[in-house]
Amino acid sequence: MGNENDYRDYNKAGAGYEHYSYPSPLYAVKDGMKVVDKNPFKKDGEWQDHSHLTISLHIILIDPRGNHVNIEVLSKAKDKVSADIKNTIKSRGFVKLRIPNKKVVAEIEETINELNIRVSVDTKDMKVYNGILDYPVYLLHHKGTARSTSDNLLHIITDKYGFKNDSSYEHADSVFRDNGLWEMEDYNGITVPSDTNHPQKICFIKTDILTNYRGDQDVVLANLIKHELGHAFGILRHYKGKQIMNDQADMGDAKLDFSKLNKADIQRDVFDRISIYKFQKSIQ
Question: What is the mean pLDDT of residues 168-181?
Fold first, then answer.
């Protein structure tokens, strides 16, 4: 992760949102949720059988008109994102860097190891991906005749994904409309992470900047996607050093990766989401 005292605060930079970390049953109970014995795997005091559940984390690369990214570039980037995110989430030995309790670490690693991770491409943009383990990533232009504007992005956030009349919308309105960060050249993309009102998260990436970097365009695109996904996984800061979460890094570098501590943070965030997903299923 680099020097933790040497970072840009993502929120203060104007492009981030308050992070809401979904509570693990091993640590806390979500405010307002009635959980018997503080354990979402119990219902009315009885253990629930979740062995039949197939839990999937779904990353959706959305090119609304199917013409924002070359199809071959997008296909290669999709495969790279799929392989790298699976490795990030399922690799062992990172959670312990954040959590000293061996029993808790074992529980987290076992749970996320059973997770099904898939990456797909959507060129129609007809669906709403609102699941707690859904990660929609919009691939858009910010210039030219096919460009998307801040108003277009706000429409997606408010009318399609339901961010209205709360702190998330107010912050999004400020980021997109008032500050115009989408139009600024300094930003490769913008992510709306989860908060207490919305488990959803949405990433937006400028695909017309791929040629700004040296290297293969599929590598650049994959790194841009992984960077914004990092924010969607709850990492709201930018760090220095040769790593994905450095917003000044060379996105054409095929060896860019999440830091070890970032991997631990991502695994914990995913585990918490799985816990909430199981709880939701147990009360249906």
Answer: 75
Three-class DSSP category at 122: strand
**Alpha-carbon distance values, 113 to 102, 171, 181, 277 (Å):** 16, 35, 37, 16
C-beta atoms surrounding 283 within 10 Å: 12
CB atoms within 10 A of CB 253: 16
Q: Beta strands of the chain (E only): which ranges?
A: 7-9, 42-43, 46-47, 56-62, 116-122, 134-140, 189-192, 202-206, 237-239
Structure tokens given for 200: 């959803």
pTM recorded for the entire structure:
0.82
For tokens 């000044």, name the residue: 248
* Chain segment 7-54, per-residue pLDDT in tens: 233 333 333 323 333 333 333 333 333 333 344 444 454 545 545 567
Half-sphere exposure of 227 (CA within 13 A, CB side): 30
Establish how many alpha carbons lie within 13 A of residue 176's alpha carbon, considering only the half-sphere containing its beta carbon: 24
Q: Per-residue pLDDT tens for 164-174? A: 766 667 767 77
CB under 8 Å to 78, separation ≥6 — which residues? Answer: 61, 119, 120, 121
What is the β-pairing status of strands 189-192 and 202-206? antiparallel
